[in-house]
Amino acid sequence: MTTSVSPYAFTAETFKRVQPEEYYRKILEQDVRPDGRAFDACRTTIVNAGCIGTAEGSAVVRIGDTTVVCGIKAEVAEPTLDQPQQGYFVPNVELGPLCSARFRPGPPGDLAQLVSERLRSLLYVGSSKVVVLEDLCIEPEQAVWVIYADLTCLNYDGNILDACVLALSAALKDTRIPRASLDVDEGIVRADEQATQPLTLRPFIFAATYGIYEGRLLLADPNASEEPLMASQVTVCLMEDGQLAALWKSGGGLCSMEQVQQCIAQARKRYTELASLVSSSSSN
Amino acid sequence: MSGSSRADGRTATQLRPMSASQGVLARADGAVRFGFGDALAICSVNGPMEAKLKEEQLDRATIEVQYRPATGVPGVRARVMEAAIRDIVEASVLANHHPRTLVQVTVQHLNEAGSAMATTLNAVAMALLNAGLPLRSMPATTTCAITADGELLIDPTAEEEAVAASIHTMAFVQEQHQLVYIESTGHYTEEQLAACHELCRAGADKVYAFYRVALEKKLAEEGFVVEAAA
Amino acid sequence: MAKIILPGEQVDVFTVDDTVDASLPVCLGPGLVQSETAVHAIQGGLLRSQETARHWWIESNKKRYVPAVGEPVIGQVTSRHAEEYRVDIGGAHTAVLPALAFEGATKKNRPNLKVGALVYARVSLADKDMEPELECVNPSTGRSDGYGELTDGFMVHCGLAHCLRLLRPNAAALTALGQHIPFEVAVGMNGRVWIRADTIDHTILGATMITRSEHVYGDMTTALTASTELDACRRLVKQLVQQL
């Protein structure tokens, strides 16, 4: 840019590539993050529900540059032997080479499987199930609805878990399944495509992730370039009633219970933001 | 805290008896079978050993983790376990002491009877110690469940987990009781989380005390003259 | 004095009483590291100290060898090169043994080790970022000091702490064995022990004795002292001789 720069000095871009940790530290010293956000600020979040006409429910979510599409499909299946009155719910996350060069084609990688399992545990463990599984029953022991939630990442820029939880919540809210009944004589299920009904949903769950930098700074909603610099990450999943649905702390770093509590406090503010986004996004 | 006894006769704050067999695999550098009562997992650790050229890292040891459940093929739950094991290993092993090498951690669950994650992570910590790798700390993990009635039960059995409203697993290092890992799912309030934290921390202290007793026993068997614990 | 210590625990090495010369520098041995102001253990084991000399270290047992300068090791030649041999010493990386690091070796007259041969050598260079190097000669005197190729005989593996014990003068297991058979032994600190006796039967007896004596401590009912240790080893040898 200017001629006075010594040929041995790095430009900011080179510095970032050569010494990412030092670059990040230097910027944080100025109480700001490289993308201009404050420590507790999340990236711009957009929710657009009902964008896929062929699915029972759908949503597109963007958190900064991270983009996730969620499609909900309902199919009829036999219930499991131990839960004859319950339908089931199968979340699946896909992180393909489409969204980032870090992912390889082929079967789901470790991160995709981890996020899928986290979503599943949100829906199954304890009494916090988002979908009331008993309502998915068409005929006990005979036929139930299976809800497939397929989440595909279109662009990966970190914090995939928050984006997936948000997309799933918005898509479930948008979902309408046909009224169905079992024709006992013919042994088939008849569904009325015209008469659809929404799913019975428990309070919404939203997730907020915080990176802990050098064991002292809490950084909300870390992006892909920040994630590898965070020794630990805390994800807080909150419900409408103010209770927690899940809390995960991962990464090899250490953190204190006070920091976890700070994360929960910040997540509460984020919850209100996300809830209003989802309620204003859906058309029905 | 209520002192009511549970199906197996324990109180709410009582862990199942811990067991550990150290050096159980002759060919591994470190191997430990750890158990909370019937819940058993075996962990083997090899390393620092030669890493494949493409896996080598110039400034630290590469860590390879594999988890196998007691029954069936490893599924998505195994990935979560592997991620947790990796967190524990990263938090404790001083990987920069052995650059360009490989540390291999393999866990086989032997019997899943509740508190699977805590059983696994404690087996891993003990196996790392058994292998003699340079460690920053010894993380100790316990699980606690909250029943539908709001009662807190430490080290739940599989039956207690099945009907629990929420399940909380926390790993601590001794230094200032910092947290290494939390997995906390279900439906619970912030106050309940804080209560679980207290209970898990007290449990982790007991696990840590067990580590010391187990090490003392091993050293005595190996002919080191050990002073009676003060 | 000794006590059990786990990794991450602090060791107070700086507080001294009147019997210790406080001006002496503190010397930390295996298993201890200094971070900023405190000293921490990075290994589990027995904390030992020689307080008058201000030496501190941790004693423990493990199976995987990490090379350290000056330690005798037993290696196996894995490949031959123009100027050096590659030797497996059980560590993370293979070690380099220069062809000239032998007693009296010159460019013209160098030892001829085959792939698979066993060598008893001293670690001459060990750094975490570099490949370890070995030598079979004392560089200051030019003598072999007992290092070199090990022919015939038999090699067994054992824990690193057991090797250290066998290296002590009057090691109980070797003393007890010596009362029954004549033998030669080479003890590597990398968990390998080589033994050669007058007959093959005796070599096998000796090798069994070395592996079995590692576990003699677990069965002991009396307090461990030098004499009870020797008695236990004597009983074990007698038992093995009878089985022969």
First-residue to last-residue Cα separation of chain C: 42 Å
Q: Write the H/E string of chain C, N to C.
A: EEEEEEEEEEEEEEHHEEHH
Measured by residues with Cβ under 8 Å of the partner chain's Cβ, the largest interface is: B-C, 45 and 34 residues
Number of helices, where a helix is a run of at least 4 consecutive DSSP H or I residues of chain C:
4
Shape of chain C: globular
Strand element count of chain A: 12
**Main sheet characteristics of chain C:** 6 strands, antiparallel
Uncertain runs of chain C:
none
Computed CA radius of gyration of chain C, to the nearest angstrom: 20 Å
pLDDT < 50 runs, ≥5 residues of chain A: none
Strand content of chain C: 25-35%
Brief overview:
Chain A has 284 residues and is of the alpha+beta class. Chain A contains 5 helices and 12 strands.
Pick out its properties:
heterotrimer; B: 230 residues; alpha+beta; Ribosomal Protein S5, domain 2; five-stranded mixed β-sheet; four-stranded antiparallel β-sheet; 4 helices; C: 244 residues; OB fold (Dihydrolipoamide Acetyltransferase, E2P); Ribosomal Protein S8, Chain: A, domain 1; six-stranded antiparallel β-sheet; four-stranded mixed β-sheet; 19% helix; 31% strand; globular
Structure description:
The complex is a heterotrimer of chains A (284), B (230) and C (244). In chain A, the strands form three sheets. In chain A, strands 1, 2, 3, 4, 5 and 6 form a six-stranded mixed beta sheet that branches. Chain A has a four-stranded antiparallel beta sheet with strand order 10-9-11-12, sandwiched between helices. A two-stranded antiparallel sheet of chain A has the order 7-8. Chain A is elongated. In chain A, strand 7 (176-183) and strand 8 (188-198) form a beta hairpin. Chain A has helices spanning 12-18, 20-28, 110-124, 160-174, 257-281; strands spanning 45-49, 57-63, 66-77, 88-94, 137-139, 143-155, 176-183, 188-198, 205-213, 217-220, 232-239, 244-250. Chain A contains five helices and twelve strands. Chain A has 284 residues and is an alpha+beta fold. Chain B has one domain (18-221): GHMP Kinase, N-terminal domain (Ribosomal Protein S5, domain 2). Chain B contains four helices and nine strands, in the order ββββαβαββαββα. The longest helix of chain B is centred in the C-terminal third of the chain and has 32 residues, at 190-221. Chain B is globular, with a radius of gyration of 18 Å. The relative contact order of chain B is 0.16. Chain C has three domains: 2-59, RNA polymerase II/Efflux pump adaptor protein, barrel-sandwich hybrid domain (OB fold (Dihydrolipoamide Acetyltransferase, E2P)); 72-150, OB fold (Dihydrolipoamide Acetyltransferase, E2P); 154-243, Ribosomal Protein S8, Chain: A, domain 1, CATH 3.30.1370.10. In chain C, a hairpin with a 4-residue loop joins strand 6 and strand 7 (55-59). The longest helix of chain C has 18 residues, at 226-243. The mean pLDDT of chain C is 92. The chains are: A alpha+beta (284), B alpha+beta (230), C alpha+beta (244). At the B-C interface, strand 3 and helix 4 of B face strand 1 of C. Chain A: Pfam families: RNase_PH (PF01138), RNase_PH_C (PF03725).
